[in-house]
């Protein structure tokens, strides 16, 4: 499948305001906000950056992440960055395996101390913590059975079936001579180059869609712009969907 316009061009056009920290045009996010009874601070933790947005604001804010970022440092930086914002609750999307609202494995691309960290106590607010790919998947969902694949520092994935979120930690499963993440994460892109990386992305997406048989697949994450074309049955995700998913976590009537 070839596209007349490159994915990078399409992505740039669709997220132009987001790249300028302006997502005021995202009607879907406004819809999520209108269904909330609380002011929500959404924290999207990635291997390269941390982005935040609060109910009622049009521009997100961010700071650099990386292998030295600890949870205490993350909370401290978020508090400083959001000092002039008011919020009642917090949604956090974080790389790594999350069970029962807590990280149970250390995120590979961040600093130490994430497992067992008390985010609610640190923020002084109720907190809902989910996997970062799961949060973006929630914001990308349009019904039915959806597979979400996030191409970023690592490899994120989640399935949503009839509204039920099923996060998946597949990045470190065996693939060829290493793991999925080593081939289609940032390391794979840097070591193997775009051409070979794209072939591996197409192969991984095909394997996942063949196994899971979704109605449609959304491919998101910061490196989605490096693709020339989307595999069949896939649509382009947007980073703004992570915020939409974070707001959705506190939607009235939702238990988790």
Q: What characteristic shape results from the CA principal axes? A: globular
| Rounded Rg | 17 Å
Identify the CATH homologous superfamily of the largest domain.
ATPase, nucleotide binding domain
Strand content: 15-25%
What portion of residues is helical?
A: 25-40%
What characterizes the major β-sheet?
A: 5 strands, mixed
Distance between the termini: 38 Å
Number of helical stretches of at least 4 residues: 9
Structure description:
The protein is α/β, with parallel strands linked by helices and 256 residues long. It has two domains: 129 residues, ATPase, nucleotide binding domain (Nucleotidyltransferase, domain 5), CATH 3.30.420; 94 residues, Nucleotidyltransferase, domain 5 (2-Layer Sandwich), CATH 3.30.420.40. The strands form four sheets. It has a five-stranded mixed beta sheet with strand order 3-2-1-4-7, with helices on both faces. The protein has a five-stranded mixed beta sheet with strand order 10-9-8-13-14, sandwiched between helices. Strand 11 and strand 12 form a beta hairpin. Helix 6 packs across helix 9. It is globular, with a radius of gyration of 17 Å. The N terminus is likely disordered.
């Amino acid at each position: 499948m070839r596209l007349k316009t490159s994915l990078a061009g399409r992505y740039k056009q669709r997220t132009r305001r987001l790249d300028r920290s302006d997502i005021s045009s995202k009607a879907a996010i406004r819809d999520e906000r209108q269904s909330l009874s609380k002011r929500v601070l959404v924290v999207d933790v990635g291997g390269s950056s941390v982005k935040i947005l609060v109910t009622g604001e049009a521009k997100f804010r961010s700071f650099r992440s990386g292998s030295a970022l600890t949870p205490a440092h993350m909370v401290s930086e978020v508090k400083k960055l959001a000092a002039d914002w008011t919020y009642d609750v917090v949604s956090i999307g974080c790389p790594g395996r999350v069970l029962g609202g807590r990280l149970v494995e250390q995120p590979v691309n961040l600093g130490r101390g994430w497992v067992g960290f008390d985010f609610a106590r640190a923020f002084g607010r109720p907190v809902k913590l989910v996997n970062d790919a799961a949060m973006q998947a929630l914001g990308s969902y349009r019904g039915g059975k959806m597979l979400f694949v996030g191409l970023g520092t690592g490899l994120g994935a989640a399935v949503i079936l009839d509204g039920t979120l099923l996060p998946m930690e597949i990045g470190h499963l065996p693939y060829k001579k290493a793991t999925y993440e080593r081939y289609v994460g940032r390391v794979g892109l840097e070591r193997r180059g775009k051409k070979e990386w794209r072939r591996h992305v197409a192969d991984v997406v095909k394997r996942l869609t063949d196994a899971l048989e979704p109605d449609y697949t959304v491919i998101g994450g910061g490196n989605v712009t490096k693709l020339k074309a989307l595999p069949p049955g896939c649509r382009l995700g947007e980073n703004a969907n992570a915020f939409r998913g974070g707001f959705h976590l506190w939607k009235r009537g939702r238990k988790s």
